[in-house]
Design goal:
9% helix, mainly beta, 8 helices, 33% strand, 13-stranded mixed sheet
Length: 738
């Protein structure tokens, strides 16, 4: 099988595409909206991919072509469950002996996430036990099955083929946990249960749910509660305490009226089949992992469509891995939520409604076609919970991240007309405590070096007023008129009060070093009412096509990083509001430009970017209102470019790897610093001690670019080209000999 055939065929080889971009050929979906969003980008990328593909195949047969941060295709054994690490897969071993060297990566990686038994739904009909369901009666033609009214209990390893209708009953698997593998074949069943799960796996080494080819199968609960005799917290139409795999090519429809549709306490895998899921809570919920390499998923859920819980003491659990499949998701909360790593190597993911589209501690996109419509963030990397809720962290975390209660605020500032001009002695500490100390003082040390232009302010910690201060404070009885001020800290809410051109604004109160979004490839479109792509730490873009229709409100941005964003490849168009607009760091290796239009453009406005020779780099038609655009591609270099929007045109000089022009409240990389920031338009404000966002002291500032009361972290910093290894797990290395 050629590399291209491998990509266009089954994605269930488990082949890691951490950075195997040259083997991916993304065909147009023909979707009019996507074509309208951007028409020329794909042609250009396909041309580049064809060049890379040819070169890659000649040089290395495609198996070693990588981009971005490379990693070993085989995953650490640390991610194996105990039962999987101790078992062997004879069929996997046999097949690897027949593989040519060019396919060795595929064969090795196959055992990372899926075993041969996961991928193969076939069985020997002559050895299968047939179970016939008929209303409230059940018959079986072999051993290993105990029947008690309408409850069928499987007690031994084997293949069990179910046919018929069960009015109010369930299938229970209670076999040997250490050795018994059970395959349940749904061969045209309709099972209803009013009191518990339709399929309840109490104990087994592993269970396979196979939807037989060409069959329609239905499972549903009808009660408003479950009878939980075992005290196990059974809360899904299919509930498994052990590893469970769904395969086959039939259709399984699950209606969860009580709670979740599918629940697994360990690993839940899908390697084929069609799944129509409607759930009162979550669609698919697992503790250790969810792994999908093929299948069709139509999920409507009141909460997350796909969700992992993980283990607070073991970050190797709680991940989601997707290498293929087609997804149509309508979720009341997150579309796909991983407690730890979320990795997408391929597939077509269409999330038409959700709160947040893709969420995980870290997110890695290596390929696939992803469309997200979100009422909040499109992508959100949260980082790993440190368990420390004592107060601010080193990047400006303010306790629980909640804003102060302003419900009783009448809009009037406190009357300071009698203020005598004397400021309290701060001693470099946070005001408001009896001893002048603050819990956050120790948290500022690591971040204090991130902004060199704050070192001068940081050196003056005495609390003395500026030399030119005349002892008079501005009248604070009401908010000042800022309509004409442009000098003091930006003179508007995008600057002054919020801290000098957003560099010291509200602050990302959830910033954390281990929150990372890495995009190595794929075709991504995001329509977000909140942040388009939001990482509480870092954003790295190495490749792919990324289009973001970001927020219309100035409280969010098309791109948002808690620390810094870098771009090394790929193509990005991100439009949205300008109040919180953020672009990539100047320490990137690919040029980017953020341009603020100074006005809000309406839906349907076309934006183009052309170079000095008249060559068009970008043409994009707005799907909703926007006042800023971020663009980056390999075609963008130093020089003069013309940005046209509607009937307006402006020339922009690109002289730095990260250029910001026009009228924005945005910033280059990083977050927006500590709370408060900014003065009220005068030029006698006070800036935080060092811009780290901890607000531990106040230093006079006569430049008018600082802020009174409140720190501003400004932009984060990082070593240029810094990357993280987001390689995830795989267990199952050869776990099924049966």
């Amino acid at each position: 099988m050629s590399p291209v055939e491998d990509v266009n065929g089954s994605m269930c080889t488990g082949k890691r595409r951490d950075m195997v971009a040259a083997c991916v050929d993304y065909e147009s979906t023909g979707d009019n909206k996507r074509d309208r969003r951007y028409t020329d980008m794909r042609k250009k990328n396909l041309y580049m991919i064809s060049v890379l593909l040819t070169a890659g195949m000649v040089l290395s047969g495609c198996s070693d072509v990588v981009i971005g941060n490379s990693s070993d295709s085989s995953l650490s054994s640390d991610f194996l469950t105990d039962s999987e690490a101790d078992s062997t897969d004879d069929s996997s071993t046999d097949s690897s002996d027949d593989s040519s060297s060019s396919d060795s990566t595929t064969s090795t990686a196959s055992s990372d996430y899926f075993t041969d038994r996961d991928l193969d739904p076939s069985y020997d009909e002559s050895e299968a036990i047939n179970v016939t369901l008929s209303g409230d009666t059940v018959t079986a033609d072999g051993d290993g099955v105990e029947i008690d009214g309408s409850t069928i209990t499987i007690t031994a390893a084997g293949v069990y083929v179910f046919t018929g209708t069960l009015d109010d009953g369930q299938i229970v698997v209670d076999a040997d946990k250490n050795s018994d593998k059970v395959q349940i074949v749904l061969n045209g069943v309709d099972i209803t249960c009013s009191y518990s799960a339709c399929i309840y796996v109490k104990s087994a080494d592993k269970v396979f749910i196979t939807s037989a080819d060409g069959t329609e199968n239905t499972l549903q609960d009808t009660g408003d509660t479950y009878t939980d005799e075992d005290g196990e917290g059974v809360d899904g139409v299919i509930y498994s305490k052990d590893n469970i795999t769904f395969n086959g090519s039939g259709t399984l429809t699950i209606t969860a009226n009580y709670n979740h549709a599918i629940v697994g306490n360990d690993d839940v895998k899908f390697t084929g089949g069609t799944y129509n899921i409607t759930a009162a809570n979550k669609g698919v919920k697992a503790n250790d992992s969810i792994r999908i390499c093929d299948g069709t998923f139509n999920v409507v859920s009141a909460d997350d469509a796909f969700h992992t819980d993980g283990d607070e003491d073991d970050t190797t659990k709680g991940y989601i891995y997707i290498s293929g499949g087609t997804f149509d998701i309508d979720a009341g909360d997150d579309g796909i939520h991983a407690e730890t790593e979320l990795i997408v190597d391929g597939g077509t993911i269409n999330i038409t409604n959700c709160y947040e589209g893709l969420e995980g501690a870290t997110i890695t996109i290596n390929g696939g076609d992803i469309d997200v419509v979100a009422s909040d963030d499109g992508f959100n990397a949260t980082g790993y919970d440190s368990g420390d809720d004592s107060g601010m962290d080193l990047t400006g975390d303010m306790g629980d991240g909640e804003m102060p209660d302003m419900s009783n605020f009448d809009g009037e500032m406190p009357d300071m007309s009698d203020f005598d001009g004397e400021m309290p002695e701060m001693g470099g500490q946070m005001p408001g405590s009896a001893d002048g100390t603050s819990d956050s003082s120790s948290d500022s040390t690591d971040s204090s070096s991130e902004s060199s232009d704050t070192e001068t302010a940081a050196s003056d910690m005495s609390g003395e007023l500026p030399e030119n201060f005349d002892g008079e404070m501005p009248e604070m009885g009401e908010m000042p008129d800022m309509s004409s001020s442009t000098d003091a800290a930006g003179g508007n809410m995008g600057g002054g009060m919020m801290g000098g051109n957003m560099g010291g604004g509200m602050g990302d109160m959830d910033s954390t070093e281990d929150a990372v979004i890495t995009i190595n490839g794929g075709d991504i479109y995001i329509d977000a009412s909140g942040d388009g792509i939001d990482s509480n730490g870092y954003l790295y873009v190495y490749g792919g096509t990324i289009i973001v229709d970001g927020p219309t409100s100035d409280g969010d941005g098309a791109l948002d990083t808690g620390i810094e964003g870098y771009i090394y490849g790929g193509e990005v168009i991100a439009v949205g509001s300008s109040g919180m607009a953020e672009t990539f760091s100047s320490e990137s290796t690919q040029y980017s430009v953020l341009y603020g239009f100074g006005t809000t453009l309406s839906e349907g406005t076309e934006i183009t970017i052309t170079d000095s020779d008249g060559n068009e780099l970008m043409s994009y038609t707005l799907n909703k209102a926007a006042s800023s655009v971020i663009y980056s591609s390999a075609d963008l270099t130093e020089g003069t470019y013309t940005i046209t929007y509607g009937d307006e045109s402006v020339e922009v000089e690109i002289s730095d790897l990260s250029t910001t022009a026009g009228t924005t409240g945005g910033m280059t990389g990083g977050n927006m610093g500590g709370f408060g920031g900014g003065n009220f338009g005068d030029d006698s404000g006070f800036t935080p001690d060092d811009g780290t966002g901890d607000g531990s002291s106040f230093t006079p500032d006569s430049t008018g670019e600082g802020g009174s009361f409140g720190g501003g972290r400004g932009g984060g910093s990082s070593e240029a080209g810094e990357t993280t290894d987001n390689d995830s797990t795989g267990d199952d290395a050869a776990d099924d000999s049966f």
